[in-house]
Design brief:
Chain lengths: 423, 423
């Protein structure tokens, strides 16, 4: 029957039951009917969970501080002046997304740090909830950690607007989610993050822990297709400059590149997932369509080949649809390895706990990708049932979630001892 | 130098200078930087032009009345109890549309009726500004005239919402654009409308007047593509159910049908111009896309063949993109001839004025399409430079606009004499 009083006392047993109860509470913010969450960055649900998480940290002795872009930190300074081991992830979600994506890693970080709160370490501990990792409301994704590491200009980030024209800086100011006194990159000795896999490798191989060794390479484009507004009925077909036709051919081209090149060895993942049509009227040929187009592969040469084909075929689409295709923006990265020392350390902790593990890449981006290269970074995965991701049906079992928490606690203890630091 | 006092007096000379000055005033409502207008139905700009037009009518002795769906009438009852000759078009525009589309026909109708105001006729005169002809904000198009003729249920029409969720009935009530005492279909003896061509036939053939003899046949679909939300990076390509890929293939299919079938004789115009993507996030495969798909042809058999091919190929798209394509709605019409008596009457008036004319179809829908079949209907065109339509660059010359006004006045005079009535 358990002890109800024990479950209701937030300061009580910080083991499995408390973690799972806290996770259930967290999953209530923006909960959807089908078991997911709907809490995009700086939404009302995100603000509420941010406030709840701040109280959770403060109640346990963490010093809660924020930086100017809304990253939320809980500091445990036991060794004055020493750098921090930073550990965390993000609480925001995709629209109608899963409960575990990001939120699991933030809560596991907080519980792991809290477990170590009673002891002194060479390094201090800092838990982080990065702002707007998902990027669905404010582009780009991994937003808060990009500002933290200098990849994104803070002024430009604050001036970013959502599709309704609402500015990040105004939202953060209104909710009181910014502040001073937060650690900066210079204060960080190393970073750790745990996340659900978002794929099926661990499940298919019966493995509990993924030791992430590298990020896939990626090229991401913001494209603008320019046509000419005209009547969908009366305009002669040969006269049309249909921006939506051009955009549709780009969507099909992205899939064709994957179909053609994936058979040659390494996989190539391609996608178009966002599209805005102007004027989007039932009787007017579209004058302009904006869309994103992503290419990802673990093989940099294959990615380069896909990128080359993409560019060469755009010209054909411009001719056939009588449109212009502009590259409004692009960014990308190569295959980025995570430090071997961190992988080895995490492997030893997993072995000590009797948890099965395997080295693997991450296809999805994470805040750890921004930190990696600046400070020694450890990235860990736990299994995700059927690999379902960015979907309300996303799920990780309690046993796997708790195994990950134990692993992260062990990793954090060794990182706090100063086993791996920069330089 | 002209007489400024004359231009400023709204009651003065009702010839060419006044018409053009009034048209310039009308074009100022919702004027865009590039010479077009942006005044969708019940927008602030549409409300202002509606109020201006009501005053224009009232100042000249018209009795201004409205029906429950926001159609605006100006009545000139000189023969108590006699039915009305109805003449008009619509003042609303596409987003960033042309100045002439619809507005020309409404103002020409008002000026033509005003020119005849001093004389008595067998029939009474009624000018009409139909509500929401464009259908860009509230679907379907030709909305007000569809309610007037019974093709659209009034309750359903009032409950229609724009993309922001705003209800037609609430907007009309707030602006006072509804009323009682308006004529109904039973009070109408016949209908006439003049419109810019929205094509290049008149310009290419050096003709001033188009005598519209028929409407192209059309099939219009509202389609919903159902996929499954997942991560654009980590989801294995073979596992994806990408609704946007399915939608893109439908856009390409629509164009392919035209490319394949137009060579066989009659033209086939196809289009997709509106698309809504959910969740429209940069890192989430789309779970649902809604779109419109239109097929139009002057050849009913060709249209039936295109419709058959469309349906047969949807199954292939469902398989290749692993999505379901649902037909959420559809409507259509066959080739609809306009009455020969009206064409003959208009031709005689044009001959009398020395205006070149030709019989031609209309591809675009007009409010006259809704009236046709219920009451004898006369549909007239004037040229449109380069055939530009639903675009800020739309233009008709002053000479053509004034020629059309003279023609409409002559047609209206003969219709008011009772030359063509139902039965």
């Amino acid at each position: 029957m358990g002890d109800p009083a024990n479950e209701e006392d937030p300061m009580a047993d910080d083991g499995a039951p408390t973690f799972l109860a806290d996770f259930a509470t967290l999953s209530g913010f923006g909960a959807t009917e089908r078991g997911g969450v709907h809490r995009e960055a700086a939404s009302e649900a995100d603000d509420r969970q941010w406030a709840w998480f701040g109280r959770w940290l403060a109640d346990r002795g963490f010093t809660v501080v924020h930086d100017r872009i809304g990253n939320q930190f809980g500091l445990l300074e036991r060794t004055p002046g020493a750098p921090y081991v930073l550990v965390g992830s993000h609480l925001d979600s995709q629209p109608f997304g899963g409960r575990w994506d990001g939120a699991y890693g933030v809560l596991a970080a907080a519980h792991a740090a809290h477990r170590l709160a009673g002891t002194t370490h060479a390094l201090n501990l800092a838990v982080v909830n990065w702002f707007n990792e998902e990027g669905s409301r404010f582009t780009p994704s991994m937003f808060g950690s990009a500002v933290f590491t200098g990849a994104l200009d803070p002024g430009a980030a604050l001036d970013t607007r959502d599709p309704a024209g609402i500015r990040v800086g105004d939202l953060l100011a209104a909710s009181g989610r910014t502040g001073t006194g937060a650690p900066t990159l210079a204060d960080i000795a190393c970073y750790a993050e745990i996340h659900v896999e978002q794929g099926r490798v661990l499940e298919d191989t019966g493995t509990t822990i993924g030791l992430v060794e590298a990020t896939w390479a990626a090229r991401k484009y913001a494209l603008r297709v320019l046509g000419e507004q005209s009547h969908t009925g009366s305009t002669v077909m040969a006269d049309r400059r249909d921006a939506l036709l051009g955009a549709a051919r780009l969507v099909v081209l992205a899939r064709e590149l994957s179909d053609e090149l994936s058979g040659t060895g390494a996989p190539l993942h391609t996608s178009v997932s966002r599209m805005t049509v102007e004027p989007n009227s039932p009787v007017t040929v579209a004058r302009e369509v904006t869309l994103n187009l992503d290419l990802r592969s673990p093989d940099e040469q294959l990615l380069a080949r896909a990128d080359e084909l993409l560019h060469s075929r755009i010209a054909g689409i411009e001719r056939s649809a009588r449109v212009a295709v502009e590259i409004a923006g692009s960014h990308g990265w190569g295959v980025q390895p995570f430090p071997a020392a961190g992988i080895d350390l995490a492997r030893e902790v997993a072995d000590g706990l009797g948890l099965g593990h395997r080295r693997m890449p991450t296809v999805a981006g994470h805040d750890s990708v921004n930190l990696n290269g600046h400070v020694p970074t450890v990235m860990l995965f736990v299994p995700s049932v059927d690999g379902i991701s960015h979907n309300e049906g996303e799920h990780t079992t309690d046993a796997d979630a708790l195994a990950g928490l134990d692993l992260l606690t062990g990793v954090l203890r060794r990182l706090a001892a100063g086993e791996i630091t920069a330089g």
